[in-house]
Amino acid sequence: MNNNFTHLLCFLCLLLLAPQLWAQKLEAENATLSGGAARVACSTCSGGFAVEQKEGNLAFSASIAQEGFYNIILNAAAPGGEKTNIITVNGVSADFYLAKNNQYQNHKIVNTLKLPAGQHTIEIKKSWGWINIDYIELEKVAASDRFNLNQTLVTPNPTPEATALYNFLLDNYGDKIISGVMTLSSMDEVNWLKQNTGKEPALVGLDFMHSGRAYNWYNDKEPIQDAKACYDRNGIPALMWHWRDPLRTTEEFYTQSSSKPEGTTFDISRISDPNSAEYKAMLADIDFISGLLKELQDQHVPVIWRPLHEAAGGWFWWGANGHEPLKALWHLMYDRMVNHHGLRNLIWVWTREPGDEAWYPGDEYVDIVGRDIYKDGDHSSHAIEFNNMNALYGGKKMITLSEVGSFPDVDNLIEDGAGWSWYMPWYGGYTRDSFYNSLSLWRKMFAHEYVITLDEMPDLKTYERQDPAEPEQPQEPEEPQQPTGINDQKHSFKAYPTLIDRDLYVEGESLIKSIAVYNTLGVMLRHQNVYKDAAIVSFAGLNAGLYIVKVNGEETLKVVKK
């Protein structure tokens, strides 16, 4: 009776302490306020106060006892209308969006961000300003199930070359980043990088911007000729389309505005009327570009295809009339290219803008999701953006930096666990000017083992999956003789505790690149990229029993979860 009462008391204590162990609430009124942010009384708010941001900023100090992955939840209201502002964690920043709402609500503005133990600074900074903040909360989460990537392309019966390229992207996702650069004219930036660094990026950005316009100074086939030349050297061709006014009334792709009076007024909403001149013009352009892409398919060249980019920004005509016409155009393009023209060599990339959930064409039309980020001189990992996007798309889509001005420093990518598939800085000054990206940083990136350059690329024509969804079974694991579950063989790392309750702690004598957990049937249950000398492996949610832990894909040990 006494033992049962003691167990019950302990259980109740754990329940009471759980929120304090796994979540930390930071009241806005206790933050450091600047720029006009003001503390106000609020009877419905936690602690009886809130902060009106106005044109100001808030800085919170958080103490983390244990390294891990954390969500950051913002309890806030936006009574004055929809607002976009900035969340910054230790200098890594991202935009977040709140719809108009008079009531204080929880908004998860950061997902599964890796934070080491120690002190951290979290800031809410003005972009638009004018939201009211009650508190932020840090919520510790297990990061082992972040990814559930689609293993096949959305195009039915894709070409073997497209499948091979997609498999290459899958194999390297989260383990390495693919280097890239955008070109303006026939490998200009690629050649410049070769001359100044001795290496070339693995991915080359190309544009159909001038194709199909009957320019007497331009070869319409230049983009596909460059794509073929790139692929023949085992490079990855990434094609996009700054689609000029389909009616030919202007040569613009930007929407007409006060700052761009010469822009086009082309009306994408006419996509709903197949008899309209606008619909017929869009269809004719799609057919022309499809013909060029078909030539690449006939030459067995796969293409990363990124059309209608940055739609929700509204600065291009395809985003000027809201999300419904845009989605209709995306679906028309997909149907026309895939089903009418028989294009099966495309890997479809959607380019996200903040708050564009209603614009997304749908999982069945998108293979990869990109983000275009231009923050001058910012070489941070953009880990908040990465994790938020991964969570938004359910871990099903690979996430990439489809365009950047200043690209992330490789050290930051590794430290923050930001697993972008590739990065592609824009041409001109963004590639060559040290204000955006210095030559020393280019050389550092190209020399690092985490960054894939052209000379390190495999033969994409014959590439086979290296990291299949069904991993190879470990060699006949034996039952441990002692409940410690740790093998007696010498390892290049230490692992503890010997009998796991929730977490396994691993410390390496050298760099730990990856850790995987298998059950005794050889099924991979956990995988995480580390690139540090220590890591925490969560066994939360796993049943009691024997497990195999593999470090760096080589050394194994047995552990027991109680």
Layout of secondary structure:
Blueprint lengths: L1 H21 E5 L4 E3 L3 E4 L7 E4 L4 E8 L3 E11 L4 E7 L2 E7 L2 E15 L2 E8 L6 E10 L18 H13 L4 E6 L5 H10 L5 E5 L14 H11 L3 E5 L36 H22 L4 E4 L16 H18 L5 E7 L15 E6 L9 H10 L5 E7 L5 H7 L5 E4 L3 H4 L6 H9 L3 E2 L40 E4 L2 E2 L2 E16 L5 E15 L6 E7 L3 E7 L1
Parallel strand pairs: 12-13, 12-19, 12-20, 13-14, 14-15, 15-16, 16-17, 17-18, 18-19, 22-26
Antiparallel strand pairs: 1-11, 2-5, 3-4, 4-11, 5-10, 6-9, 6-11, 7-8, 7-10, 21-23, 23-24, 23-25, 25-26
Helix pairs in contact: 5-6
Structural description of this entry:
By secondary structure, this protein is α/β, with parallel strands linked by helices. The protein folds into 3 domains: 23-140, Sandwich (Jelly Rolls); 160-456, Glycosidases (TIM Barrel); 493-561, Immunoglobulin-like (Sandwich), CATH 2.60.40. The chain is 22% helix and 32% strand. The chain is built from 10 helices and 26 strands. The protein has helices at 2-22, 160-172, 188-197, 222-232, 277-298, 323-340, 383-392, 410-416, 429-432, 439-447, and strands at residues 23-27, 32-34, 38-41, 49-52, 57-64, 68-78, 83-89, 92-98, 101-115, 118-125, 132-141, 177-182, 203-207, 236-240, 303-306, 346-352, 368-373, 398-404, 422-425, 451-452, 493-496, 499-500, 503-518, 524-538, 545-551, 555-561. An 8-stranded parallel β-barrel has the order 12-13-14-15-16-17-18-19. Strands 1, 3, 4, 6, 9 and 11 form a 6-stranded antiparallel sheet that branches. Strands 21, 22, 23, 24, 25 and 26 form a 6-stranded mixed sheet that branches. Helix 5 (277-298) packs across helix 6. It is globular. Mean pLDDT is 89; it is low at 5-22 and 468-488.
